[in-house]
């Protein structure tokens, strides 16, 4: 497994495919993920505010993480996306991506990593993953995404 931070134009389609393979996301959410790749490619990591780490197996992207500094904060960062292709789950790729993200955020002077996710039952494995990697659920906003779909907020201090 290899990991890289520099995006390629082809990563846009791979990011979409990785997320689509989970069957968790709506089409408009996949569009947003692709837009973040394009923002990074056009403006660069610093100006876009979107940092990516791509996991590759045999030169093919199989997972990624996207994060960035939270605007108007001293030392907070947001995890925007993490995804591992469905056919690669259980191989430790997600854990490694989280570790690399945390190291990079610490190197950038970050102290707080914030994650937001849905309370829908479909997201139970995602929530368990965050808890197992040391994040604490600190808030729940009722009906945020829709009826009976709360926003759950996780935090890890690095």
Structure in words:
The longest helix is centred in the N-terminal third of the chain and has 22 residues, at 27-48. Helix 1 (11-20) crosses helix 2 (27-48). The mean pLDDT is 97. The chain has one domain: Gcn5-related N-acetyltransferase (GNAT) (Aminopeptidase, 3-Layer(aba) Sandwich). It has helices at 11-20, 27-48, 93-107, 124-132, and strands at residues 2-4, 51-57, 60-69, 76-84, 112-118, 136-146, 149-157. Helices cover 35% and strands 35% of the residues. The chain has 4 helices and 7 strands. The protein is an alpha+beta fold and 158 residues long.
Number of helices: 4
Gyration radius from CA atoms, angstroms? 15 Å
Termini gap: 25 Å
Number of spatially distinct domains: 1
Q: Tell me the number of strands.
A: 7
- Structure class: alpha+beta
Identify the strand order in the major beta sheet: 1-2-3-4-5-7-6
The chain-level mean pLDDT equals 97
Q: Which stretches are poorly predicted, pLDDT < 50 over at least 5 residues?
A: none
Order of helices and strands: EHHEEEHEHEE
CATH top level class name:
Alpha Beta
Largest sheet geometry: 7 strands, mixed
Question: Approximately how much beta-strand content do the residues carry?
Answer: 35-45%
Global morphology? globular
CATH superfamily (homologous) name: Gcn5-related N-acetyltransferase (GNAT)
Helix content: 25-40%
Here the CATH topology equals Aminopeptidase
Mind telling me which CATH architecture this is? 3-Layer(aba) Sandwich
């Amino acid at each position: 497994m290899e990991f890289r931070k520099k995006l390629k134009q082809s990563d846009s389609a791979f990011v979409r495919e990785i997320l689509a393979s989970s069957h968790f996301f709506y089409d408009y959410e996949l569009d947003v993920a692709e837009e973040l790749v394009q923002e990074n490619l056009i403006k660069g990591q610093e100006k876009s505010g979107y940092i990516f780490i791509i996991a590759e197996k045999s030169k093919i992207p199989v997972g990624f993480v996207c994060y960035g500094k939270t605007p108007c904060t001293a030392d907070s960062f947001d995890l925007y996306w993490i995804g591992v292709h469905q056919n690669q789950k259980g191989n430790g790729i997600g854990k490694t991506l989280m570790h690399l993200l945390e190291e990079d955020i610490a190197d950038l002077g970050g102290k707080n990593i914030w994650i937001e996710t849905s309370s829908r039952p479909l997201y139970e494995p995602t929530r368990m993953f965050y808890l197992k990697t040391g994040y604490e659920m600190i808030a729940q906003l009722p009906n945020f995404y829709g009826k009976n779909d709360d926003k759950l907020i996780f935090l890890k201090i690095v």
